[in-house]
């Protein structure tokens, strides 16, 4: 099997794709700027290059991991760092509320403690404590002392010049380069750091330091194991070795006496370093007893580079019976192999995992990215998002290299990975629903550990059913043997705790696990493994669900009581919408799976499924979150719309659900919601391109400079975001964004008996070559342009998973296209060419010339996620909202189009009407102008030098409010209806190349510092189908005369 081998460019499939979609010659590598100042993207090599030094802030730090070892390092280098408070805050979030600082740990290194600083249900502590991730000493520090100054995380920024740091995602390597002037005086020393955490040999990591001086100087280098990182751990032992240049420290997780972790560090140095000066060092670390350091003297000669390396070995007894021996051998053998040798094998393994074809590619056929910065950023996150999650997984090669150690790869993926203790390192639904799906289809062998974790905790989940007595489900004899209940949060034990109850809370977790198990079968085709290991879990969850439901004899229906749906703002309510639909699917799927695998079906599950009813408001046609929901609801995160995203549910209310709940999302919710809206919008919207708007909304406002790691929140300041200390780096949000292209634009839905896609690419995206994905264990490529999508089977010798379904080794794969009729066949010799659903070309307002136009410009700053393109995406559920009401904000749409030769042309239209849906906050005044010259060339569209070139089409300084706020109607559930202004022009006005809207004020908020008005949809409507064609290459004066003369009615 070579399922992760790089795809050959000579593959017949790719040749056919290129013939269909390609045009133009290939060009040389290009580095792209980003919206983050000082940050560039090298698309050919997958490098993020940062030239801004921003120490003391968690957003600037990087986490590196290999699925077993994980560490977070400072902006200045591979150092331990404590956050500098911002607005008085350097606190981690729930449930720890401890100090934000760099973190290092080993997978599964959980403690036991009676309580945490935060919990959902504190009274559950009487039944048992919590299991929280513990730290190990921070192991990557190589400090430098010169002229009485220390180079570590606390270095004076004024002493750093020519700073550059690079994250190489093709090699999973971090590097820093800068000049350091110790103490701000004397000659600067050139400093370079490189580090990686070995992807194949999971017990190993390496750090390299290079020093170059322009004058002879003596310095001291310190190899530090910083014990202040070992939070919630107990000191066991440490030692400065005399027989080798090694130090080590050992800790155990709090109150867990049978688990110990060892961290070894061995120095290796080149010419100029006198190892005979090596000695144990004091005073360069914090007060934690597990800290230890060693130092060496270094004689820097002018112009010569000195190289010092440290080789890490780490292991705990959770996975290794003799962790001290394993860690020691890993450290010493690493030093023997050397940095280059270790890096080579590390890169080889990493390149076999994050292959070029395993991520979505937005490049044009000539290899360059479109000029649109939004698409360039989608390309960046198409690489960064899978990278950040995959580095927290252990693959089959690593397990084999560790002697087929089955204790590796069983720890799932925490919310922020192994370089952070956010959310106490606990495992949530985040792993199954948000992180796994986008990678499960492309990297099922890596995401296997998410499945394995639930396997590991299955016996405890069966025991958890006995905890029903501690809940409202405490009726005598209600639950019997056979069920399994997983807790909301889970660490070492998987038991029901105060942060993670099993009852009276988010029961949907169990069904979320069921979906993940089902998807694993659909993707891998490994039926034997599923039947033996996963089908029993699927059945036990169904058994639990069947007994959990309460029968209402009056209505002859079953209902779920006292539950919480994904929207955690609405706790402990009855008949929750998403979970009810999920239970229905799970019961039906379990019987179906049982029939396929020759296991007896359960008739009671079929009966209960048939008698489940979702709460629906028939008047508005929406599914309610819960039976007693009213219109005042504010939704924390995606909830009801997950029904359409995850459940393959026959939902007649899909579109109204989408529009209604889009307006109800809280700005303080976590950053994975809008990826769901994008996927569902692409599936159910009859027109427009709001899926693209939501795609950007689910990514850009949450990505932080410089590394495009996601924050949990729109705003990191807890005073501005509702009191949340954001989780970071928020892998949940990155996983949510990583789902959009494959499940949204390609429309992939996972079924076991067929491959189902339904592609539709928004007009702004010219092309996507999707990540290689698997169905029943067989590799498939899909590539879309605006009009068509090609599906092609990839060569079996390189793209067949172990234990794939052999039925399709020679037979065609059955393909369906969403709700379109017919079943098609996909074989090796004949790629399938599919016509896209071009919903972006279908006008929401007939005759609107602006809808989904890809070229638009606005210099006005806007609120996070309230993009200018929202005003013309054909959906009133999205809005443009400038940041400031007290200045005029302009949005200009360029109606020209470019040909393949590079020339451009404009189609002119006779315009009779202008329509606005202002959304919730109309402006106090507006104006619409036409021109043939971009407003970006002028200070203002109404400046004196601009006036000769424009037509003022319509304006008003008295915008009426058609939907005024009604406090009495807040709790009523109503379909969306925004404030609208419709303008019919007295005379036809011909459009120019540019159509510009200016708005000022905010009628809903007249405070001095108010945010700007909202524009939900702006339509410029043709008078008829007649058009005038004009080339932009013609004389500007003649075009201007035509525009002005005809536009003013002659």
Offer a quick outline of the entry.
The protein has 1050 residues and is of the alpha+beta class. The chain has five domains: 24-53 and 370-394 and 667-744, no CATH class; 54-352, Beta-galactosidase, Chain A, domain 5 (Distorted Sandwich), CATH 2.70.98.40; 549-666, no CATH class; 750-842, Sandwich (Maltose phosphorylase, domain 3); 846-1022, Jelly Rolls, CATH 2.60.120.
Folded structure, characterized:
The protein has 5 domains: 24-53 and 370-394 and 667-744, no CATH class; 54-352, Beta-galactosidase, Chain A, domain 5; 549-666, no CATH class; 750-842, Maltose phosphorylase, domain 3; 846-1022, Jelly Rolls. The chain is built from 20 helices and 45 strands. Helix 15 runs antiparallel to helix 16 (690-697). Helix content is 21%, strand content 24%. It has an 11-stranded antiparallel beta sheet. Strands 8-7-13-18-17 form a 5-stranded antiparallel beta sheet, with no helix packed on it. Mean pLDDT is 92; it is low at 1-27 and 1026-1050. It has 1050 residues and is of the alpha+beta class. The termini are far apart.
Strand-helix topology:
Elements lengths: L11 H10 L9 E3 L5 E4 L4 E4 L11 E4 L3 E5 L30 E3 L31 E9 L2 E3 L8 E9 L4 E8 L8 E9 L6 E10 L3 E10 L6 E8 L5 E8 L7 E9 L3 E9 L10 E9 L4 E12 L6 H15 L1 H15 L19 H18 L5 H6 L27 H12 L7 H9 L1 H7 L43 H17 L2 H22 L1 E3 L4 E3 L17 H20 L6 H8 L5 E2 L4 E2 L18 H5 L7 H9 L10 H12 L5 H8 L5 E2 L4 E2 L20 H8 L1 H6 L3 E2 L4 E2 L10 E3 L3 E3 L2 E8 L2 E6 L13 H4 L2 E4 L7 E3 L5 E4 L20 E2 L31 E6 L1 E3 L5 E5 L1 E10 L5 E7 L18 E7 L22 E12 L3 E7 L16 E6 L5 E4 L4 H12 L3
Parallel strand pairs: 27-32
Antiparallel strand pairs: 1-2, 2-3, 3-9, 4-5, 5-6, 7-8, 7-13, 9-10, 10-11, 11-12, 12-19, 13-18, 14-15, 15-16, 16-19, 17-18, 20-21, 22-23, 24-25, 26-27, 28-30, 29-30, 30-31, 31-34, 32-33, 35-36, 36-43, 37-38, 38-45, 39-42, 39-44, 40-41, 40-43
Helix pairs in contact: 4-17, 6-9, 6-17, 9-10, 9-11, 10-11, 11-12, 14-15, 15-16, 15-17
GO molecular function: alpha,alpha-trehalase activity; carbohydrate binding
InterPro entries: 6-hairpin_glycosidase_sf, 6hp_glycosidase-like_sf, Gal_mutarotase_sf_dom, GH65_N, Glyco_hydro_65_M, Glyco_hydro_65_N
Family: Belongs to the glycosyl hydrolase 65 family.
């Amino acid at each position: 099997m070579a399922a992760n081998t790089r795809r050959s460019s000579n593959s017949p499939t790719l040749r056919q794709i290129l013939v269909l979609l390609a045009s133009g010659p290939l060009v040389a590598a290009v580095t792209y700027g980003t919206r983050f100042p000082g940050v560039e993207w090298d698309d050919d090599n997958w490098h993020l290059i940062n030239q801004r030094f921003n120490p003391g802030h968690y957003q600037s730090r990087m986490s590196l991991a290999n699925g077993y070892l994980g560490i977070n390092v400072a902006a200045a280098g591979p150092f331990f760092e404590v956050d500098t408070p911002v607005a008085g805050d350097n606190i981690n979030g729930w449930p720890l509320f401890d100090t934000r600082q760099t973190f290092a740990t080993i997978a599964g290194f959980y403690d036991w403690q009676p309580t945490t600083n935060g919990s959902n249900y504190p009274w559950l502590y009487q039944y048992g404590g919590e299991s929280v991730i513990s730290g190990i000493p921070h192991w990557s520090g190589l400090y430098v002392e010169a002229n009485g100054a220390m180079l570590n995380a606390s270095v004076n920024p004024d002493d750093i010049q020519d700073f550059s740091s690079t994250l190489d995602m093709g090699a999973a390597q971090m590097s820093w380069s800068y000049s350091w002037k110790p103490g701000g005086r004397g000659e600067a020393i050139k400093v370079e750091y490189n580090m990686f955490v070995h992807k194949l040999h999971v017990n190993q990591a390496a750090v390299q330091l290079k020093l170059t001086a322009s004058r002879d100087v003596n310095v001291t280098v310190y190899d530090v194991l910083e014990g202040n990182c070992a939070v919630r751990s107990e000191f066991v032992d440490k030692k400065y070795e005399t027989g080798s240049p090694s130090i080590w420290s050992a800790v155990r997780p709090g109150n867990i006496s049978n688990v110990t972790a060892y961290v070894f560090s061995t120095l290796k140095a080149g010419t100029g370093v006198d190892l005979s000066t090596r000695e144990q060092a004091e005073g360069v670390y914090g007060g934690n007893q597990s800290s230890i350091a060693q130092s060496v003297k270094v004689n820097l000669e002018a112009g010569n580079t000195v190289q010092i390396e440290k080789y890490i070995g780490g292991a705990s007894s959770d996975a290794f019976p003799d962790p001290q021996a394993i860690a020691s051998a890993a450290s010493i053998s690493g030093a023997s192999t050397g940095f280059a040798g270790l890096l080579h094998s590390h890169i080889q393994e990493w390149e076999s995992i994050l292959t070029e074809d395993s991520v979505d590619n937005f490049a044009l056929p000539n290899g360059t990215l479109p000029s649109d910065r939004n698409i360039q950023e989608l390309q960046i996150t198409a690489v960064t998002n899978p990278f950040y999650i995959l580095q927290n997984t252990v693959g089959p090669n690593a397990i084999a290299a560790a002697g087929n150690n089955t204790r590796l790869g069983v720890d799932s993926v925490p919310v922020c990975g192994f370089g952070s203790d956010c959310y106490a390192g606990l495992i949530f639904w985040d792993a199954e629903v948000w992180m796994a799906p986008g990678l499960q289809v492309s990297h099922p062998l890596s995401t296997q550990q998410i499945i394995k974790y639930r396997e590991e905790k299955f016996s405890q989940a069966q025991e958890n059913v006995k905890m029903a007595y501690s809940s409202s489900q405490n009726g005598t004899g209600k639950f019997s043997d056979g069920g399994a209940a997983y807790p909301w949060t889970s660490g070492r034990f998987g038991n029901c705790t105060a942060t993670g109850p099993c009852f009276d809370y988010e029961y949907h977790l169990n069904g979320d696990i069921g979906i993940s198990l089902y998807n694993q079968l659909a993707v891998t085709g490994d039926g034997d493994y599923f039947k033996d290991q996963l089908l029993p879990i699927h059945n036990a969850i169904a058994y639990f669900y069947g007994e959990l439901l309460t029968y209402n004899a009056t209505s002859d229906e079953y209902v779920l009581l006292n539950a919480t749906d994904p929207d955690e703002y609405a706790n402990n309510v009855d008949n929750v919408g998403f979970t009810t639909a999920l239970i229905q699917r799970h019961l039906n799927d379990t019987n179906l799976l049982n029939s396929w695998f020759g296991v007896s079906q359960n008739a009671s599950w079929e009966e209960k499924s048939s008698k489940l009813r979702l709460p629906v408001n028939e008047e508005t046609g929406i599914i309610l979150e819960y039976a007693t929901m009213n219109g005042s609801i504010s939704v924390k995160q995606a909830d009801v719309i997950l029904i359409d995203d995850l459940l393959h549910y026959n939902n007649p209310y899909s579109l109204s659900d989408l529009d209604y709940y889009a307006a109800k999302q809280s700005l303080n919710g976590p950053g994975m919601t809008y990826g769901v809206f994008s996927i569902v919008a692409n599936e159910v919207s009859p027109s427009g391109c709001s899926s693209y708007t939501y795609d950007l909304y689910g990514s850009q406002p949450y990505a932080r400079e410089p590394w495009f790691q996601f924050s949990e929140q729109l705003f990191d300041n807890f005073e501005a975001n509702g009191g949340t200390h954001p989780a970071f780096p928020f892998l949940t949000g990155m996983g949510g964004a990583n789902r959009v292209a494959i499940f949204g634009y390609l429309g992939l839905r996972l079924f076991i008996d067929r491959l189902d896609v339904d592609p539709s690419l928004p007009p702004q995206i010219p092309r996507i070559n999707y990540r290689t994905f698997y169905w029943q264990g067989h590799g498939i490529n899909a590539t879309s342009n605006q009009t068509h999508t090609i599906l092609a089977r990839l060569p079996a010798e390189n793209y067949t998973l172990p234990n794939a379904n052999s039925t399709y080794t020679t037979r065609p794969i059955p393909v369906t296209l969403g709700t379109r009729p017919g079943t098609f066949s996909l074989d090796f010799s004949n790629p399938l060419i599919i016509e896209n659903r071009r919903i972006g070309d279908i006008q929401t307002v007939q005759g609107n010339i602006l809808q989904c136009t890809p070229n638009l410009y606005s210099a006005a700053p806007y609120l996070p996620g309230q993009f200018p393109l929202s005003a013309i995406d054909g959906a009133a559920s999205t809005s443009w909202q400038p940041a400031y009401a007290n200045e005029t904000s302009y949005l200009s749409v360029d109606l020209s189009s470019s040909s393949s030769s590079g020339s451009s042309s404009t189609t002119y239209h006779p315009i009779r009407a202008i329509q606005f849906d202002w959304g919730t906050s109309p402006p106090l005044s507006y104006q619409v102008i036409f021109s043939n010259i971009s407003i970006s060339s002028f200070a203002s569209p109404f400046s004196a030098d601009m006036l000769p070139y424009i037509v003022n089409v319509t304006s008003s300084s008295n915008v009426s409010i058609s939907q005024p706020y009604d406090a009495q109607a807040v709790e009523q559930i109503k379909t969306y209806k925004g404030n609208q202004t419709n303008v019919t022009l007295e005379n036809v006005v011909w459009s120019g190349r540019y159509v510009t809207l200016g708005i000022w004020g905010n009628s809903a908020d007249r405070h001095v510092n108010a945010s700007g008005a909202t524009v939900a949809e702006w339509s410029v409507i043709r008078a008829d189908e007649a058009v005038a064609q004009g080339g932009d290459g013609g004389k500007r004066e003649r075009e201007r005369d035509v525009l002005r003369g005809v536009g003013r009615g002659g």
